[in-house]
Amino acid sequence: MPSPRLGLSTRCVHAGDTRDPHGALHSPMYDHSTFGFATTSDVLDVVEGRTSGALYTRYGLNPTITALEAKLADLEGAEAALAFSSGMAAEAAVFLAHARAGDHVVCVGDVYGGTFELLGQDLPRLGITTTFLLASEAGRIGEVLRPETRMVFFETPTNPLIDLIDIAAAKAAAGPDVLVVVDNTFASPVNQTPLAHGADLVVHSATKYLGGHSDLTAGAVMGPADLVRPVWAARKNLGTVIAPPVAHLLQRSLRTLAVRVRAQNATATAVAGFLDAHPRVARALHPSLAAGEARSIRERQMTGDGGMVSFVLDAGTAGTSAVVDRLRLFAIAPSLGGVESLVTQPVTTTHHDLDEADRARRGIAGGLVRLSIGLEEPEDLITDLAQALEP
Ligand SMILES: Cc1ncc(COP(=O)(O)O)c(C=O)c1O
């Protein structure tokens, strides 16, 4: 259960941990596929839900996984959470659990490429269709709803343009019968808890900030128990539960989540300020720089600005690639949220396959660069960017 009276760092360290009979300070790792019972009536109690307990790992009924899920739920202020083998596994289970043939989804803003393919290519084969709106069209959610619309899905901040989408306004437009599902990967629960702003479910690629060290792949879903229960059934039959060793590693990462993300917020704000003032940078994009309506959304729903910074150079694709290639501390890699800083040029990676017209419509130019800020000293990252940006 959520424990809102305790501060975030305290909950990162302690939420969900169970005392082990030998006195180990944290939940031990049970890398077992199945668990034994003294009597058939004991096993029936677990199968029929009268008692909670370990049963079978693919069901998620494994103490290492349930301890992790208690922490994940607590951090998002949710009644329940489920851990998955990847972020895409978490999303797929949500769509399969809450939509069926004939249903309709509204997807707002740029979403992760895999999500885009799942909604645009895989789900239509099952009879589930999606209307895609740009982030700037978030005000049109109400207009595109149909009687068969089941879900509104979006990320905020978005990737790679760091647009902010108003969660409470999206829920108001969706109404009580349409689920608002927010991918909170970019913000992490340190900076934003969408359920508190009206979202019905939250999904995460735990591969990113929750894992935080670029050494695990996992996903999560958080929300009220009645909406999470069907997702549990989908996970059970798809077989996409998190593996116990990964659950144990993720549980360890979560103990430092608040410290890591707060440091990344501060460094990213310093880097964004540097880029914003740099003569070669046409635009720097970070919630700390948000103005107008975006600033009000930032103030209403975020408590920190996050570690993702994008910027646009007054240069073409080749000139921008040359700047990226000169960076020494930033690794050119497609992920984010780890302790090490990463850089990507979206037209050479995530948005490579979009045609020119679609890129232009989405504002993805050759000069766009995305940074994931790690835990290096801010001055070292700024010095590295300064040398790479020298004409
Ligand atoms: C915002 C977002 N959501 C979901 C995913 C998918 O997560 P995973 O790679 O863990 O399956 C990603 C991966 O990059 C992502 O960036």
Structure description:
- The chain is of the alpha/beta class and 391 residues long.
- It has helices at residues 8-14, 40-47, 63-76, 87-98, 113-125, 141-144, 167-174, 188-191, 225-238, 244-254, 257-277, 292-301, 317-326, 356-362, 378-388, and strands at 80-84, 104-108, 129-133, 149-155, 179-183, 201-205, 219-223, 281-285, 308-313, 331-332, 342-344, 368-372.
- Helix 5 (113-125) links the parallel strand 2 and strand 3 (129-133).
- Helix 3 packs parallel to helix 10.
- The protein is globular, with a radius of gyration of 21 Å.
- The mean pLDDT is 95.
- The chain binds pyridoxal-5'-phosphate (PLP).
- Pyridoxal-5'-phosphate binds next to helix 4 and helix 5.
Question: Which labels suit this protein?
Answer:
391 residues, alpha/beta, Aspartate Aminotransferase, domain 2, Aspartate Aminotransferase, domain 1, 7-stranded mixed β-sheet, 5-stranded mixed β-sheet, 39% helix, globular, binds pyridoxal-5'-phosphate
Percent of residues in helical segments? 25-40%
Number of domains: 2
- The spatial strand order of the largest sheet comes to 1-7-6-5-4-2-3
By CATH, the superfamily of the largest domain comes out as Type I PLP-dependent aspartate aminotransferase-like (Major domain)
Which molecules are bound besides the chains? pyridoxal-5'-phosphate
Reading off the top of the CATH hierarchy, the class of the largest domain is best stated as Alpha Beta
Q: Mind telling me which CATH architecture of the largest domain this is?
A: 3-Layer(aba) Sandwich
Q: Tell me the Rg in angstroms.
A: 21 Å
Could you give the distance between the termini?
A: 55 Å
Q: What's the helix count?
A: 15
Uncertain parts: none
Q: Could you say which overall geometry the principal axes of the C-alpha atoms support?
A: globular
* Main structural class: alpha/beta
Q: Average pLDDT, to the nearest integer?
A: 95
For the secondary structure, the number of strands is 12
The CATH topology of the largest domain is: Aspartate Aminotransferase, domain 2
Strand content: 5-15%
